[in-house]
Write a structure and sequence with these properties.
Layout lengths: L1 H19 L3 H12 L5 H10 L6 H26 L3 E2 L2 E2 L1 H5 L1 H22 L2 H24 L6 H26 L4 H28 L11 H4 L5 H9 L2 H9 L5 H12 L3 H19 L7 H13 L5
Antiparallel strand pairs: 1-2
Helix pairs in contact: 1-2, 1-3, 1-4, 2-6, 3-4, 3-8, 4-6, 4-7, 4-8, 7-8, 8-9, 9-14, 11-12, 11-14, 12-13
GO molecular function, one term: metal ion binding
Keywords: Magnesium, Metal-binding, Transferase
EC number: 2.5.1.30
């Protein structure tokens, strides 16, 4: 397993190199966005999946770097759409540099991600990343259009499959492809990645209501303030004080007292417990999918990643 973490350390250095290769006016915002922290979970999933086979080292480093660059680009664009002020405890690119520079930085990083994939020369990776990127865009648009509106569970699941789970899935698929695993094993990794991504998003939904401010780079109740209807909110709207929750969702700048009342209205129901239960079901599915993969330290670590998603601190 030491080799996997050594690879991630090398990815960190390459991320800085990507930023330094950007147009002069974008070097600083690109560097800040790529090196301001983060779990590096997507490149780690890619590396672990690949190391269950026999990947070529340079291709592995290129793909792991590309997926983090792509992920960072999506965060920059998300923050522009949401008007977010901070992420990971620091000002967002749009808050620090303005919409024009932020949009250009995000676009540049999208291009750099696919440039890195092109250097690997495997069309399967390019196709997988492209499909995930289209899904990300569609998922973000669906979520934005649904802000403040009534959302059913299946619609919620569909947009988080695209917006969140898609990159988890493509990380695992790309890693398995580079490792030369069988199609059955790559399919198992794809299922694992999607289930993990769904559970990860549901965990974030919970933490937005009960977590600690700053751990995710945002304050408690941010989703409610932005009008984002998450799974706990969907459940609470059906079970609790829907009128108060709707008032928060409809107000672009709810007073602190109203926001606190909205959070309390959600917490007064069993929405958190139901969301945790659903997330654990996704984790169980993810662990089952790993049964088709080689019995090795990388698989054990993927199992531990899945087991720690629900109830995590950040």
């Amino acid at each position: 397993m030491e080799g996997a973490f050594e690879t991630i350390d090398e990815v960190e250095g390459r991320l800085a190199g990507v930023a330094e290769g950007a147009p002069a006016e974008l070097v600083e915002p690109a560097l800040v966005s790529l090196t301001s922290g983060g779990k590096r979970l997507r490149p780690l999933l890619l590396v672990l999946s690949a190391r269950m086979g026999e990947p070529e080292r340079e291709e592995l480093l290129g793909a792991a770097t590309a997926i983090e660059v792509l992920h960072t680009a999506t965060l920059i664009h998300d923050d522009i759409v949401d008007g977010a002020e901070s992420r990971r405890g620091v000002p967002t690119t749009v808050a620090e540099y303005g919409r024009e520079i932020a949009a250009a930085t995000g676009d540049c990083l999208f291009a750099e991600a696919f440039s890195g994939l092109a250097r690997i020369g495997d069309p399967r990776l390019v196709r997988a990343f492209a499909e995930a990127s289209v899904g990300l865009a569609a998922g973000e648009l669906e979520q934005y259009r649904a802000n403040g509106a009534d959302v059913e569970v299946e619609a919620y699941l569909e947009h988080i499959r695209k917006k969140t789970a898609g990159l988890f899935q493509v990380a695992c698929v790309a890693g398995g492809t580079l490792g030369g695993l069988s199609l059955v094993q790559i399919d198992a990794l794809a299922s694992y990645g999607q289930a993990l991504g769904l559970a990860f998003q549901m965990s974030d939904d919970i933490m937005d209501l009960v977590g600690k401010p700053g751990l995710m780079g945002k304050g408690i109740g941010t989703d409610l303030v932005e009008g984002t209807v998450t799974l706990p909110v969907i459940f609470a709207l059906k079970e609790g004080d829907a009128a108060t929750i709707r008032r928060v969702l409809a107000d672009p700048s709810p007073p602190v007292g109203l926001l606190e009342a909205g959070i309390e209205a959600v917490l007064a129901t069993d929405a958190i417990a139901r969301t945790e239960e659903w997330a654990r079901g996704e984790i169980d599915a993810a662990l089952e999918d790993l049964g088709l993969l080689p019995d090795c330290p990388e698989r054990e670590f993927l199992e531990s990643v899945a087991s720690e998603v629900v109830g995590r601190d950040a």
